[in-house]
Amino acid sequence: MTALVYSASGTANFQNWLATNPAPTAQASVPAANSSANGNSNGTTTSFQSLLGQLTGYVNETPAQRMQNSILAQLGITPQQLQSMSPQERQQVEAKIQQLMKTEMQAQQQQQQQQQQQVQAQMQQQVQTQTQQQASQSATHSSSRHAIPMINLFA
């Protein structure tokens, strides 16, 4: 196996490494729109670059953007399609997105509240169990104590 060399031209080295070291398993390939434009016929490299670009884009999005993109996907609309809509259509879709985002956020808040209530109930039950155990241990210790006669040393 060839070692991976890091340098300022790391992308080129990584592409060379990928070309000489195909993965042992079947790889899913995401076709890139510019693969024929740049002369790159290696689907693995294009697939990697495409996936890396998608991952970078996702990581750089805010949670609100992620939620909006998720809702757009549920509606079967791409961000590009949304941008190309007429102002009236886009306003309707954005209103639907706002409504769905509000519903989703309320559902998440409700779920968090339920989880908090469950945790509090569990903690209360643990405290009650510990209190009962301590009370039973205390009762056991007090009943097993023997009276020790007091001796007056100053008499």
Rg, Cα atoms, Å: 33 Å
Q: Report, as a whole number of angstroms, the end-to-end distance.
A: 96 Å
Which sequence of SSEs, written as H and E, runs from N to C? HHHHH
Number of helices: 5
Number of strand segments: 0
Largest sheet: none
Q: What is the average of the pLDDT values?
A: 75
Percent helix range: 55-70%
Shape: elongated
Low-confidence stretches: 1-12, 24-40
Task: Explain what this protein looks like in three dimensions.
The protein has 155 residues and is an all-alpha fold. The protein has a domain at 41-132. The protein is built from 5 helices and no strands. Helix 3 packs across helix 5 (87-143). The longest helix has 57 residues, at 87-143.
Question: What characteristics describe this protein?
Answer:
68% helix; disordered N terminus; mainly alpha; 155 residues; elongated; 5 helices
Detail the topology: elements first, then pairings.
Elements: H1 10-20, H2 43-60, H3 63-75, H4 79-84, H5 87-143
Helix pairs in contact: 3-5
Briefly characterize the structure.
By secondary structure, this protein is mostly helical. It has helices spanning 10-20, 43-60, 63-75, 79-84, 87-143. The chain is 68% helix and 0% strand.
